[in-house]
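Lab notebook, bench 4. Continuing the backlog of folding jobs that were queued last week. Each job is logged with the same field layout so the records can be merged later without manual cleanup. Today's entry covers Alcohol dehydrogenase, a 388-residue chain. Filled in by technician R.K.

JOB TYPE: sequence-to-structure
TARGET: Alcohol dehydrogenase
LENGTH: 388
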Amino acid sequence: MKALVWNGVNDLAVETVDDPTILNPHDVIVAVTLTTTCGSDLHFIDGYLPGMRAGDVFGHEFMGEVVEVGAEVTDTKVGARVVVPSFIACNRCWYCDHDLYSLCDTTNPNAELQRPILGSPTAGIYGYTHPFGGYAGSHAQYIRVPFGDVNCFAIPDFVTDEQALFMSDAVPTGYMGADFCDIAGGDTVAVWGAGAVGLMAARSALLNGAGRVISIDRYPERLSLAQQLGAETINYAEIDSVQEALGEATGGRGPDAVIEAVGMEGHSTGVQQVYDRAKQALRMETDRAAPLREAILACRKGGVVSVLGVYGLTDKFPMGMLTNKSLTLRTAQQHGQRYIPQFFDYVAQGDLDPSILITHDLPLHEGVRAYDMFKNKTDGCIRVVLRP
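JOB STATUS: finished
OUTPUT FIELD FOLLOWS
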């Protein structure tokens, strides 16, 4: 089959690789209908996350059609149109039993690679480094889905392929970020980043009862989309201080909760940006964490800081601000299995349309160009859909 593979830092190619096969009686093989670029992929494409090997198929956000099932798969049927969360769950361990699916104790076969870094292993994830399981990813014509009955969600007829695609990762990640905020009716929530996850976090905050949502970014097309989803906007490149702007917008108190949806390759302005870029380029730090620091600084006293961005070893993390302002910090990789069924209801009610994230639609053989456009944010790119 054809697949988009990682061959080295900023070295991608579409190549022919082996088709996946059933390895476990609980496995399912899915013919990928749609898969999409994701900002998390940029971290290992740019060489900031270790653990990729030449020839690895990557990609973790996808939907498709079931074409083969293992002998012990009972609920998922051949021919079903399904969406699959990016993190792989077993639904049998303590963590899955507590709806902490991205922490599954069963699905990472490379646990020994994570323990020195994290202390204990997380769940496996498709196409996202060998410490996270070494699974082949979704930028391919076919993909093996372990524990098919747990991880394949049948898509209702009223949900389009394009809507279902982002329920694999961007929507549950953004929704979880809003869920972490413990929103009370009328709260003000500020969201750093108006990429796909930030936009879904903004929309989710409103769905959870926020009175106001303020999206912060520098790209006009992304801020325009945030406005379409119901958010107010701040273009941080056009003002002197985001903190001051948020203070003015909230009567001097600051947002009740903040959501950081940027991650380790964040952008800022001034001396902070020069400092972070220089240290990251020299591999003296893994993260450009200006948006995270800014979010913590801007949050009101006693508020919630919800972190969705992927980070490594963050330099100059403002722990003193968290302590002295009595802030609650919440973060996780997304527990998609917990949230996906309710997204179907939101679509049915007209409250959510994830397909709004799509700016480009390309065949898989143009995957290298897709990631170049996505990484460099050219041509107004927010998300590229790839069709194997």
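OBSERVATION: The domain at 173-331 is CATH 3.40.50.720 (Rossmann fold).
SIGNED: R.K.
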